[in-house]
Structures are given as structure tokens and as C-alpha cells.
Write a structure and sequence with these properties.
With 867 residues, this protein is α+β, with helices and mostly antiparallel strands. Among the domains are: 7-77; 191-521, no CATH class; 561-645, no CATH class; 750-867, no CATH class. The strands form 13 sheets. The protein has a 6-stranded mixed beta sheet with strand order 1-31-32-35-33-34. Helix 3 (58-75) crosses helix 31. The longest helix has 25 residues, at 24-48.
Length: 867
């Protein structure tokens, strides 16, 4: 594929042409040619990521094209199939580690100019250097991706870098952690041979304390630096989606390459990001759960010096010899699990204490007081996956000594909890005891690794220590998910923590769509219950009939400050300090207005301001201050309910605010329903249950923009948009992770199901209306970069996957049939709707051996879902 120029350079070309040419007609011709060339290149980019389809419902195929386009724009596309430009790889090695580059300079110079990614890895493995192999595994030859983020923020700078400072073609990518990995999930479904590279990139950038940095780029990783005085600055781990994004990549690896993860579990090829954050001790977290991360300026300076000396690997944890410290994949998979368990509140969820803890900025306001059922649900799916992965293992496991100790401490705490499960919620004292034991185990680990050389060595432990931990974890999670089922069958998304001495209470918040998506994705809900849950949502307060879709939260009126700031008279009279101050005419804490209503002083923004005022008054009111302090804090929270504040979502009507549909969450719901549909089929559920889930899937899909008129949607219907507020049309085109989910759901509708390294065509979610009523031409780009045309007959549809055209033909045949047309002109008929091993390999690797895949389907092949 040629280096994409795309529409992004058209404007610059026009400026140059206007400056150089005096003939307006010549300018017009040149601009037209430039636009045409840009469109062709853009088409090639989308085609490479399987964005081209031909079906009877044009809005569906156009919407898929737009989703693929924006997914590429957010995460990039692989430059030249699986061909790696060796000079670029060598440059990448030199950028990250000059010592490794120097050791292997001769090899890198002797390799061909281009090499298949698999062949490059083979050549690297022959060197026997695990450092070079690590760099090869995480190398991603991507182009055309842009840095993503909210454009309203001053630190976001948008660019698609296609050329370097000398005008030479450049491979580049950068993106916020939570954005780029989700888009790579959809991309690797069409480029499966790069899945393990993306997994390596993910885990190599996670930290010794189990979290991830802020941004991932071709040049390495970034974190937020502490900048006192900058109102936009706020450090903290962006832990949102960490577990589920990693898990989705691991699941893809198992589906396409069943043996790959098992081979990597015991190989020390993976690293740790050395982010200069220090999470405070458990005691400090309890004392002030909103300020929990310190910035280590001295470490940041040392890291900068190391980068200058050795390259970008200087941002990673090093061993005693100054080399990058490397561990096996199992250790890297255990770390985020242990980190989440260190914050587990049984019955509540995962405690949000990393300052930037969860899904989006709306819920960052819950830091400290909030616990996430969402993360708990995804953790369940992660643990189940780990159990399946390790079921094939029997050998002892090698871990860093400090990680092994953390594992043992966490396992002991969960083993102690397990006998308490199954008989309703734990008591507040039992919940505190388990939370404390898990938190102290995490604290001991962090204190042992928060040093310049974190790890003292490696030890071997029985596999049973890990599998027993997983069993006890699953029991605690299932118990907690059951505890968060609401009376109407929906599930809590976030709860509030009530820390009171040696007891922990859990208070629930209002209904949130995110909680239902997580519960449906967890694997904890049976198909019939899943269907009932989705039906309940359609009758709930989060459903918006005008858009036929779901808001993030129920809409509600917002009280003004004067309406909210009302202190009950009896609560004032019950506090000695307030009685004394009122008698003295002192209104510095509570005043009484002309209507006789008591109100807190309007200068207070939060409980911290109240605490500061109490401290300032201590010399005047003496013992009454301390005697009344806790009662005043309780009263202040009773009036303002700041612990329930969910940020802009609970205080605004724009963005992800009140009355707002956030389209990425709707598309996550769509994918979750689809997963339950196929799970029901795989589990042999009754036809009616499967049909019901299929109908619900299309009910959810019907609310997405491409099914609407421009007047209904308030925007171009086929384009993805970020959100639709209650007072206007869809906002922010392309600024949404919705595209990733809908790329995957579209391929699911078409029946592409991969497992055990093989594709199985299962189009039971496909509707008959998708098949054309007349013959048409389908234009696609083949794996050799050539535009081709295919005749799609009546009652057929076509699409590409791994850049191979696939034709579905709805016939009256006795049974479905599959035919493979090869490049040499031969045709192979298969008795089943799946490919044999050798053909799967050819398809996934985009070798060009397969020219066309044709499926003859019957009406019985489809579920006949018409809604």
C-alpha cells in the first residue's frame, strides 16, 4: 500500500498551488486532482481495514465505512499488510535502546529492506537476546493515526504525522491509553497477526503497581507531570477500561492463535513502565481517599537522565545491571488483577483511589468515595479467562519475589473471606476486615517496590497458588455482583463508600446504563436473565423515546443553590457550636435569612472549606469546635450530598450530562447483547430465547443514528457522533469509541466467529432484508493493492475481511455450502461453514492465496429476526 496522503493534505496543497500558479483554471484542475487522489488514498486506507461492504441496506454499509474510517483515524492502520520496513524497525530499536541497537547493528543492516513480521520475529529470536525480542514484539508499523482527546482542552494537539522533518514517509501513532487500545482491538480483528504485538505494547507499558500511564506513542509512553499552579493539571493513573481492554485483546489472541499466550506465559519478554507516581499507604488512603498519589520529582529527574543516556527504554524499570527488567506474561497479567483486588470492597466494588480512576471524566468526581461495580464485572470476565488459560498449564510459575509475596498476601485475605460468602451481604465489620487485609497486602508490596531497583530477584511458586487465588476471587466477585442486583433486575454501576472507624458501609447510586453493560458483559448472567434486563431498560427512566435509545443516567431537575442550601432547624439546634454561634450573631458557619431559613455560609465550596473555617475559629470557640466537628461534617454532607456528585454528568445538560445519550455506551450495550445472543446459541438455549435476544439486539441497534433521518438525528445519520444532549442534535462527529464496538458488531452480524484458530461462518443474526433484490457491482481493494470488481447477484451480499472478498448468496439449496476460489483458478468445496487450518492461516496472513470465499445459504441459516 502506498504512503497515505489523504484529504488532510489537500488544504496545504491548495495553498501552495495558489501561490505558484496564476491561472485559476489550472488551480481548479490541480485541486480537483488532489481531492481525487486524497479520496483514493482514503479509500485504500479504509479498504485495508475492511470498511467496504455491499448489501441491500445502503445506510448499513455506509455507516460501516464511516465506523472503519474513524476507527483508523483514532488508532491508525498497518502500513503495508504484514511487511515491516526493516530500516524503520532498526530506527525504532535505536530510539528505544542504543545498547541493544549497537549489539545487533550488523544483523539489522544485513536484513532485506522489507520483511514479513513473522520472519522478522524469527530472525530476532535466533539472536537469543530477550531485549531485542521484547522490542520486536511491541513494534507496530502503523500510520495515519491521530492523537485523540477532547478538543475543548488546551493540552490536546491534533495531528496526523505522515512525513518526518525531511519530508520522508513516517510511521507514527499516538493516543490516550483509553482511546488507542480500544481502536486497535477492532483493527486487529482484520489484522490478526499483529494481535500479540498489541498485547505486548499494552503490558509493557503497565507499571509495577499495576496501572497504566496516560498516553501511548510510537516513541514510548507519557504520564502527566505535576505542575503546581496550573488549573488544568491533575496527576493520577487513568485506570479506566484497563482490565476490559486488555482482556478483549487476550480473548482475540486465544481465538485466532490458541497457543500463543500459553507460549508467552513463561517467557521473560515483558517490561514495566517506571511512572514516577507513588500511591499512598492503605492508612493514608482511608484518612484522605481523594489525595492518594504523590509525584516523585527525584525519580522523574533520574528517568529523564536515563532516557538521555540509553533511549526511551529509560522510562522502564531497570535491573541491577542497568538493563530493562523483564518478566513473563503471567506476572504481567497478575499485576492488574492484584492491583484491583487491593481495592476490593466486598458487596461494593473496586474502590476508586487512583485520582483518575474510571470510565470518563463524569465519574472521576467519585474518586475516594466511589466503588465501581463496573470494574468488578469486567474483573469477573478477566478471572474466568485466566482460569481457562491456566487450565492447560501444570508447571510451577516464576514470579518476581515481591509479586509472589503480594500474591500470597492477597490469596490469604480472600481465603479468609470465602467462608463468609453466600449468606447475604457481609457485616460492616467483616467488610472492613477484608478490605483492610487486601489493602495492607497491596501497601506492603508497593512499599517494597517503590525504590530505584524495585525487584530483588525471582522465585518459583506452585501453579496452585495462582489457581486457588482465582477461585476465591471469582467467589467474592460473584457474591458482590449478586449483592448489587437491584429490585427491578438491573444492576448498580457505582456505589458510595461509608468509612466509619472499623466498619464499612455501602450506599447505592441511581440507575446507570454503564452498570447494565458491564453486568451483561461479565458472564454472570444467564441468557434469559440478560434478555429480561435489556427489556427492563426499555421501560426505565434512562430510555429516551424520541431517540429510541438510552441515556447514561435518568434525567432530573437540578435544584439551585438556594433551594439546596437549606439546613433543617432541628439539626442546627442539635449542634452546640451552632447554638452558641447563633446566640452570638456569628454567621461564619451557618446564617439565618430573612425567611428564617438556616443556610451554610456561601463561601464554602466543599467540606474542606468548612474544615478550614473550623480550624480558624478554634481559638475563639475552644472545645466546642472539636466536639461539634464530626456532626458538622455529617450535616454538611446531608445538605449538599457531595459524595453523590458524579461530575459534569450530574450537573450539566451537555456532553455526557443529564438527558444525554452517549453513543459509545449504547454501542457497548449493542455488543454486550450480541455476545449474549451467541452465548445462548453456544449453550444450546431454546430457540425462543435466542430469537428474543436477537430481536433485542436489533431494538438497540434501531436507535443508532444511521437508522434515522437527519431531522431526527440532528446530524449526518451515517456518521458516528460522540453524544446527543437532551436539548439538541448529535454533537462532535467522529469523537467517539462507538466506532470500535460497531465495527465488531457488524462483523458479528455477518456471522464471522473465530475460535480455536479457525473462522466459522454463523450468520444467524443476519436479516434477510440485507440481501439485494437485484444484481450489483462490488468494488474492493485486494491484498496486492489493486482495485477489483465483483458481481453480486440477486439475493446476495458481499464484504471483505482480511481484505479477502466474501460473498453470501441466499439460495433454495438443501443445506448451506462453502466454496473457496483460489488465486490459481481452482475452486474447493467444503462440507462445513468453517475453513480448514491451512486456509485459516492463509486468510489471517493476507497471503493472496484465497481469491474469493462464497457461502450458499438457506433461509434456515438465518434466525429470521425481523423487527
Amino acid at each position: 500500500m502506498t504512503e497515505p496522503a489523504g484529504l488532510i493534505v489537500v488544504g496545504a496543497q491548495v495553498v501552495d498551488l495558489v501561490r505558484q500558479l496564476a491561472d485559476p483554471a489550472a488551480v481548479d484542475r490541480a485541486v480537483a486532482a488532489s481531492v481525487a487522489a486524497g479520496c483514493d488514498e482514503l479509500g485504500r486506507i479504509v479498504a485495508a481495514a475492511d470498511g467496504f461492504q455491499s448489501a441491500a441496506e445502503e445506510s448499513v454499509t455506509t455507516h460501516h465505512y464511516a465506523n472503519v474510517l474513524f476507527n483508523v483515524l483514532r488508532g491508525g492502520v498497518f502500513h503495508d499488510q504484514y511487511q515491516v520496513p526493516v530500516a524503520d524497525f532498526a530506527s525504532n530499536v535505536r530510539h528505544f535502546n542504543t545498547d541493544v541497537f549497537t549489539r545487533h547493528r550488523e544483523l539489522l543492516q544485513c536484513l532485506p529492506g522489507k520483511l514479513a513480521a513473522a520472519d522478522l520475529l524469527t530472525a530476532v529470536r535466533h539472536t537469543g537476546d530477550p531485549q531485542l525480542e521484547r522490542l520486536c514484539y511491541e513494534y507496530l508499523p502503523l500510520t495515519f493515526g491521530r492523537r485523540h482527546g477532547d478538543p475543548s482542552r488546551p493540552w490536546n494537539k491534533f495531528a496526523i504525522r505522515l512525513k518526518d522533518g525531511r519530508g520522508q514517509p513516517l510511521l507514527s501513532y499516538e493516543g490516550n491509553w483509553r482511546d488507542i487500545f480500544q481502536n486497535w482491538e477492532a483493527l486487529t480483528f482484520s489484522f490478526p497477526e499483529f494481535i500479540e504485538n498489541v498485547v505486548a505494547k499494552f503490558v509493557n507499558a503497565s507499571t509495577v503497581d499495576g496501572y497504566n500511564p496516560y498516553r501511548i506513542t510510537r516513541d514510548g509512553l507519557d504520564w502527566e507531570v505535576e505542575e503546581p499552579g496550573n488549573p488544568w493539571n491533575h496527576i493520577g493513573y487513568w485506570g479506566d477500561h484497563q482490565i476490559i481492554y486488555l482482556l478483549k485483546l487476550l480473548e482475540l489472541s486465544r481465538q485466532f492463535h490458541p497457543a500463543s499466550l500459553g507460549e508467552l506465559l513463561h517467557r521473560s519478554l515483558f517490561s514495566f513502565a517506571n511512572v514516577p507516581y507513588r500511591i499512598r499507604s492503605f492508612a493514608e488512603l482511608v484518612a484522605d481517599p481523594k489525595r492518594t498519589v504523590d509525584y516523585d520529582h527525584a525519580l522523574a529527574e533520574r528517568i529523564a537522565n536515563r532516557v538521555a543516556e540509553m533511549g526511551a527504554d529509560g522510562k522502564l524499570v531497570l535491573d541491577g545491571d542497568g538493563n530493562v527488567y523483564q518478566v513473563n506474561l503471567l506476572e504481567k497479567l497478575l499485576l492488574p488483577l492484584l492491583a484491583k483486588l487491593g481495592n476490593l470492597v466486598v458487596d461494593g466494588g473496586i474502590w476508586l483511589v487512583t485520582q483518575r480512576p474510571e470510565w470518563n471524566d463524569a465519574n472521576n468526581a467519585l474518586v475516594g468515595h466511589g466503588v465501581s461495580v463496573v470494574t468488578l464485572c469486567y474483573l469477573r470476565r478477566y478471572v474466568s479467562f485466566m482460569q481457562e488459560l491456566l487450565a492447560e498449564e501444570s508447571e510451577p510459575v516464576e514470579l518476581s519475589a515481591e509479586v509472589a509475596e503480594w500474591l500470597a498476601g492477597t490469596a490469604a485475605a480472600l481465603a479468609g473471606v470465602r467462608p463468609l460468602l453466600g449468606n447475604g451481604p457481609l457485616g460492616p465489620d467483616q467488610r472492613w476486615q477484608s478490605m483492610q487485609e487486601l489493602g495492607l497486602a497491596a501497601t506492603r508490596y508497593r512499599q517494597s517496590v517503590y525504590r530505584d531497583r524495585p525487584f530483588s530477584g525471582k522465585v518459583t511458586r506452585p501453579l496452585a497458588q495462582v489457581t486457588n487465588l482465582l477461585e476465591d476471587t471469582l467467589a467474592a466477585i460473584d457474591h458482590s455482583i449478586r449483592s448489587n442486583r437491584r429490585e427491578d433486575g438491573t444492576y448498580n454501576a457505582y456505589n458510595l463508600l461509608d468509612l466509619r472507624g472499623n466498619e464499612v458501609g455501602v450506599d447505592s447510586l441511581y440507575l446507570m446504563l454503564e452498570g447494565q453493560v458491564a453486568a451483561l458483559s461479565s458472564g454472570a448472567i444467564a441468557p434469559q436473565a440478560a434478555a429480561a434486563l435489556v427489556e427492563t431498560l426499555s421501560d426505565s427512566d434512562i430510555y429516551r423515546p424520541d431517540q429510541r435509545s438510552f441515556m447514561l443516567y435518568p434525567d432530573r431537575p437540578l435544584p439551585g443553590f438556594l433551594e439546596k442550601n437549606r439546613v433543617p432547624a432541628d439539626r442546627v439546634e442539635a449542634i452546640a457550636l451552632l447554638r452558641r454561634m447563633h446566640a452570638a450573631g456569628d454567621d461564619r458557619i451557618v446564617s439565618r435569612d430573612a425567611d428564617g431559613c438556616y443556610r451554610f455560609n456561601a463561601d464554602f465550596r466543599n467540606a474542606g472549606d468548612l474544615a478550614g473555617r473550623l480550624d480558624a475559629l478554634s481559638g475563639l470557640y475552644g472545645e466546642d469546635i472539636e466536639a461539634s466537628r464530626q456532626a458538622l461534617y455529617t450535616l454538611y454532607e446531608f445538605v449538599f450530598r457531595h459524595r453523590e456528585f458524579t461530575g459534569r454528568s450530574g450537573s450539566m445538560f451537555g456532553f455526557e450530562g443529564l438527558g444525554c445519550i452517549y453513543w459509545h455506551m449504547v454501542s457497548k450495550l449493542l455488543l454486550a447483547v450480541q455476545e449474549n445472543f451467541f452465548a445462548a446459541i453456544d449453550d444450546g438455549e431454546e430457540h425462543e430465547v435466542c430469537r428474543r435476544l436477537g430481536a433485542l439486539y436489533y431494538r438497540v441497534r434501531d436507535g443508532i443514528g444511521f437508522n434515522k433521518t437527519p431531522a431526527e438525528y440532528g446530524a449526518y445519520p451515517t456518521d458516528p457522533y460522540s453524544h446527543t444532549p437532551g436539548h439538541g442534535g448529535a454533537q462532535q462527529p467522529g469523537m467517539t469509541g462507538q466506532v470500535k464496538e460497531e465495527v465488531l458488531t457488524r462483523f458479528g452480524e455477518l456471522g464471522l466467529r473465530v475460535g480455536g484458530g479457525a473462522v466459522h461462518f454463523d450468520p444467524r443474526l443476519l436479516r434477510a432484508r440485507e440481501f439485494s433484490s437485484a444484481a450489483r457491482m462490488f468494488r474492493f481493494l485486494d491484498v496486492h493493492g489493486q482495485w477489483q470488481s465483483l458481481t453480486v447477484p440477486k439475493s446476495a451480499l458481499a464484504f471483505t475481511w482480511c481484505q479477502v472478498p466474501i460473498l453470501y448468496h441466499l439460495r433454495g439449496a438443501v443445506r448451506p455450502a462453502l466454496r473457496i476460489s483460489r488465486q490459481d483458478g481452482s475452486v474447493q468445496a467444503l462440507p462445513q461453514l468453517s475453513l480448514p487450518t491451512e486456509l485459516n492461516t492463509q486468510l489471517f496472513r493476507r497471503t493472496g492465496l484465497i481469491r474469493l470465499i462464497t457461502l450458499d445459504l438457506t433461509q434456515e441459516s438465518l434466525l429470521r429476526i425481523e423487527v
